[in-house]
């Protein structure tokens, strides 16, 4: 099993890479992107460094891989931030120069389709960070969400333990990026109701692995997931995307992981709050609740069949909803089902 290590952290004033290894959406929505860059400079004191494909939609996967490799190779760059997700990063990671990544480990921040990179770095022994997006989170309309920015600031600059906090309000209905005026408006938010716990009351400590569930299924199909024995003892991170996979599909994906022998090795799973609204499916609040309940039932069913003694925590703000808490990928986590607290080591 490859040992995992934390890369050195940036400091305020450092140069950090801003890359689009997935979709080059900064080129389509420069107003959102520029807001994210301004906050990166003003709120975090970091100087963003762009690469040739950062603002290019449909760039060749080899070119995107070349930019990502160059970001790791540059000795003046101390961290790498993905601008956004997408759906074809699985075609990029085979072109990365793993020797360069191993020789120049740096903290990488991304989620959704970036699960491809997070998993790739995990297999190289490099701890990365699930969460953070220049467009979605740094470019949030209205004002930055304090929970997101506090978590991201800690994940960027500190190395100690950090306690995750349940959101007192949350949202999953983003403003329309095609309307620049919408950047002035706060997103629609709902009252938070805390996390939901299932399973035995015990404390689980381990290293994290997982990410976006749909992308994990693709990675399994491409045979890019480590054997179950290597992932044994991991705390499983689960979140789903704006494609709103139905509960049946969520269950089947998890069942496949169970048949592979993975679920039985996970002592705990931290499940992101289900995103239940999209522009193509503008669900009512009642439909949102029904969708989230269906997804929770699917996860509960799969774990009852393959890992009945696992601790499950639902509605943690780590996925496609707002705010977003940053979680180390391959880093340490403590899931305390007795005190009902979750802490991570950045």
UniProtKB/TrEMBL annotation:
Domain LD-carboxypeptidase N-terminal: 16-131
A Pfam family that the UniProt record links to this protein: Peptidase_S66
Key words of the record: Carboxypeptidase, Hydrolase, Protease
Ranges where the LD-carboxypeptidase C-terminal domain occurs: 205-335
A GO molecular-function descriptor: carboxypeptidase activity
InterPro entries: Carboxypeptidase_A_C_sf, Class_I_gatase-like, LdcA_N, Peptidase_S66_N, Peptidase_S66C, S66_fam
Top-level taxon of origin: Bacteria
UniProt similarity note: Belongs to the peptidase S66 family.
Protein name: Muramoyltetrapeptide carboxypeptidase LdcA (Peptidoglycan recycling)
Highest classification ranks of the organism: Bacteria, Bacillati, Actinomycetota, Actinomycetes, Micromonosporales
